[in-house]
Design brief:
Layout (H helix, E strand, L loop, with lengths): L2 H4 L4 E8 L2 E10 L2 E11 L32 H7 L10 H9 L8 E6 L4 E6 L7 H15 L11 E5 L5 E6 L4 H12 L6 E7 H12 L7 E7 L4 E7 L2 E5 L12 H15 L7 E6 L1 H4 L1 H9 L4 E4 L7 E2 L9 H12 L13 H6 L7 H70 L8 H15 L2 E8 L5 E7 L4 H8 L3 E12 L2 E11 L3
Parallel strand pairs: 1-4, 3-14, 4-8, 9-12, 12-13
Antiparallel strand pairs: 1-2, 2-3, 5-7, 6-7, 9-10, 10-11, 15-16, 16-18, 17-18
Length: 524
């Protein structure tokens, strides 16, 4: 079957590395339904004996499917066939993982990675120092450097912070290099298999919290404990509603420990006392809890006071998953986050090393990309032709400009002549205005003009600028003189009664001259 068509390309993988055991799942989304396509856990440096989940098992006697593509894993055949793990110390990690990836039903798959301790660790701070964002991260790195004086300082990409409801700051730190990334890069370089594109690197606890938040409707006041039993260690996660209340320190007992159940029970009581929790409402079991028999022990200890059960994936409902796959819960949580993306209940933790992110940036061309690549020469040709046309238009514009410039230079002498003629006309108009302003109403105007001209000639250098006739027959004369003593002489030479009204010193063309005003009443 063509899985890309069946799931419309919505395939997602989840990796969970618990010590040296790798858990891997592949989910496919069809509409609102999510189905389990493949699930497998392998011991690194061991021989794979993979059994895929899906239509490959039909007719193989492994699992029975109903009409909706669901199957029941509670039967003996389902348990044995699906969870088939074997070891072989002669195999290399890269070859093991490549063999695992080659069993995927499609090539273009995105994936998420979950890591436990010792690759990551949690630490709490009881104050945020009034900081946030980058400043808070820098402060936390500074505080952690005091605790890690003999180690290299942390980089910002290896740290993720979140503020808890009680005011504490939870720091999630990527503390070690992960050989899984090196193996995936080696597989990609040697082309041993198609490596999924990693979207994020989160912690096992965050994968479980996001998965529980998506599939459980929890009241905001209820306290829920998620217990994850690993191969060599375990962890308690406390939620209040859908928010993180506390993540306990690691418990050094796993499925390989004989008293893991009693150890976890004791730790629950201790954490409940330390956190001052009066009541625990729900306990959800994940990881190897089913194999350890933890459910029965806790039910006997708490005597039905707490709702205790293995993880159930309810909404939107992942078909093909039941309690026998609780050990794959972390990997399923990572794959579900890839499919569903971010939401109000999702903690978007990402501790991916920058080198891993850069390694994935490969130049890829889709159908549109190839079409554009083919179109580049065509576009270049049309662009060249357009440039040639524009160059021709530009050359024509240059020719027109040169012609216009030549005409402009030829017209310059005519422009100067025009200016001179305009100035002369202006002087004539001024003279006409002066004449018109004279004693137009007197019979002897020409005699006054003659007397006025004679007075100006005898008082030169002196020039007149304005005449104004009053109603009483007197005339106001305004003008300028280069010398002060020429003004009284001019006044004496005028006919009739003359009175000197005003003399002021002003500057014209960087020279001081005398502006005057006088009044005369010519004799009729």
């Amino acid at each position: 079957m063509d899985f890309d068509k069946k799931y419309a390309g919505k395939l997602a993988a989840g990796f969970y590395l618990d010590n040296n055991r790798l858990y891997f799942v592949c989910l496919g989304q069809k509409g609102k339904s999510v189905e389990l396509v493949h699930a497998e856990s392998v011991q690194l440096n061991s021989l794979l004996s993979a059994v895929a989940v899906g239509e490959d098992l039909i007719g193989a006697g492994g699992l029975d499917f109903d009409d909706d593509g669901n199957f029941d894993l509670t039967s003996d055949s389902g348990d044995d066939a699906f969870l088939n793990h074997s070891d072989n110390s002669d195999s290399e990690d890269s070859a093991i993982i490549a063999s695992l990836l080659n069993q995927l039903p499609a090539k273009n798959i995105k994936a998420g990675v979950s890591l436990p301790e010792p690759f990551i660790y949690y630490t709490y701070f009881y104050s945020d120092w009034g900081l946030s964002g980058k400043k808070l991260k820098d402060k936390v790195i500074e505080e952690l450097a005091k605790q890690r004086s003999e180690e290299e300082p942390l980089s910002p990409d290896s740290l993720f912070l979140m503020k808890l409801a009680d005011g504490r700051v939870l720091a999630i730190v990527r503390d070690q290099d992960v050989n899984l990334f090196g193996s995936l890069q080696e597989i990609r370089r040697q082309r041993l298999a198609k490596v999924p594109q990693l979207q994020f690197v989160e912690t096992a606890e965050m994968s479980l919290i996001n998965l529980v938040n998506q599939h459980y409707d929890i009241d905001e006041k209820e306290i829920t404990v998620i217990i994850n039993v690993g191969n060599e260690s375990s962890r308690l996660i406390f939620l209040q509603g859908h928010e993180i209340y506390n993540i306990s320190y690691i418990i050094g007992a796993g499925i390989d420990s004989d008293n893991v159940c009693l150890t976890i029970y004791s730790r629950i009581l201790l954490e409940q006392d330390n956190l001052n929790l009066h009541q625990i409402d729900h306990i959800i079991l994940t990881g190897e809890a089913r194999k350890a028999g933890l459910k029965n022990l806790l039910i006997n200890k708490f005597q039905d006071k707490i709702n205790i059960d293995l993880l159930e994936l309810r909404e939107p409902g992942i078909h093909g998953i039941d309690e026998y796959l609780s050990e794959f819960a972390v990997a399923i949580g990572a794959a579900t986050r890839v499919l569903e993306g971010s939401s109000d209940r999702t903690y978007d933790v990402d501790l991916m090393p920058p080198g891993v992110r850069e390694e994935q940036k490969v130049f890829k061309l889709g159908v549109v990309g190839w079409f554009l690549l083919i179109m580049i020469p065509v576009l270049a040709f049309f662009a060249t032709m357009k440039m040639i046309q524009q160059e021709e238009r530009l050359e024509e514009a240059r020719k027109e400009f040169r012609i216009a410039k030549t005409l402009h230079e030829e017209l310059q002498p005519f422009a100067k002549q025009h200016e001179q003629i305009t100035n002369k006309l202006a002087s004539y108009e001024q003279a006409v205005v002066l004449v018109d302003s004279l004693m137009s109403g007197t019979k002897d105007g020409s005699t006054f003009i003659r007397q006025l001209s004679s007075a100006v000639g005898k008082s030169a250098p002196l020039w007149l600028t304005e005449f104004a006739r009053r109603s009483n027959g007197s005339v106001i004369i305004k003008g300028y003189s280069l010398y002060r003593n020429r003004i009284p002489r001019f006044a004496k030479l005028l006919p009739g009664e003359v009175s000197l009204n005003r003399v002021e010193v002003i500057e014209i063309r960087e020279r001081e001259v005398y502006q005057f005003q006088l009044t005369t009443k010519p004799v009729k």
